[in-house]
Amino acid sequence: MKTYSVSQLTRDIKSVLEQSFPRLWVEGEISNYKRHSSGHIYFTLKDESAQISCAMWKFRAAQLAFLPQDGIKVLVEGDVQVYERSGNYQLIIQQIQPAGVGALQMAFEQLKRRLLAEGLFDDAHKKTLPPFPGSVGVITSPTGAAIRDIVSVIQRRSPATKIVLLPVRVQGAGAAEEIAAAIGTFNKYQNVDVLIVGRGGGSLEDLWAFNEEIVARAIFDSTVPVISAVGHEVDFSIADFVADHRAPTPSAAAEIAVRDWREIQGQLNYFHEKMGSLLHKRLDNLRDQLTNWQNSYAFRRPLDLVFQQRQRLDELQRSLTNNVNHAIQMRQVNLKHIQTQLNSLNPDAILKRGYSIATRNGKILTDASQLANGDSVHIRLASGGFDSTVTSVEPSDAQENTP
Q1: Which of 130, 145, 181, 254 would give a disulfide with 153, using CB separation of 3.0 to 4.6 Å?
Q2: Are 81 and 16 in a shared domain?
């Protein structure tokens, strides 16, 4: 019998375990959950009769869509690893998914609060649905009732609308990634006008792919308007909150996406009749106006109006001529009056009446007190003038009476 050293046995056990159990999924309940300051996560995964240690490294833990807690059931994907120094084995976790209604509901609420805080649910980001889409993209299972309902409704309501299906898994491992990738594909090729993303009803576990963050962000980033149609009327998913429009069922999503051709035809008929009525009314109004013009005096005797206006023009011309002549005459009278006033104030006219102007040193003399015997003065007459010498000064009467 072969004898092993402890190290040899441990290495062989490590080799057998790690090769026999490649990456696998394990379901259990979390206990002893701890997040180390380094960012790594450590916990124990247990069921009724066994437990196993688990570790999740920082870069994987940062990608978790929810915050694990003690007491919740989860599905973990990981690799078996034997730690040779202690001889213990553990699972190195790659991802964690909630399992069971309680854990799923907790994860749902956590993600909902986080995306709400980021603004992914804001109405400001909602895109308007096209009124008449030429093509509708559908992301759902190719074999479920949802695709049959969608196709039936669209073909009945709008037979000319093209339906493009990208088949995906709608539940189970990898479903969320397929749904997100399909949304990205439609956005890459831009070959549809609106998207319907959804599936028929089911349990919270069945619908969980539409509560994954990867799907929510793919819907938010889509430039093509998205209608979510997950489950039944009472079911709400994260996809419903992010989508541009939420439909309670896949059939309702198809009704929202395309309008019924009969409804459109009815509206076209209504507008056709409305336009015809408005046109007839307008023509009747124009016809009445034309009749009124034809019966008017101006229409029946247009030359009379010309003669009346010509007569009016003659009257205005005569009035204008009279007013101008009168204004000229008034200006002439005013000018003569002003000329008379100016002539009466002219010093030469005063001198012609026998008066004279006496100046001494260029200054006009107005009072005898300004002179003294022997002063030389210049006397200006109406015609010419002369110089004289003062021999005597006679004061005025007012000066003689002054005490």
Answers
A1: 254
A2: yes
- Chain position carrying tokens 């599936």: 199
Does the structure show a pLDDT above 80 at 73?
yes
Q: 126 lies in a domain?
A: no
Note whether 138 and 164 are within 8 A (CB): yes
What tokens appear for 332 in the block?
């002439």
CA 159 to chain centroid: 35
| Structural domain for 58, as ranges | 6-99
> How many distinct structural domains can be found in the chain?
5
Distance in angstroms (rounded) separating the CA atoms of residues 92 and 59: 12
Does the pLDDT value for residue 401 go beyond 60? no
Q: Determine the pLDDT at residue 159.
A: 92
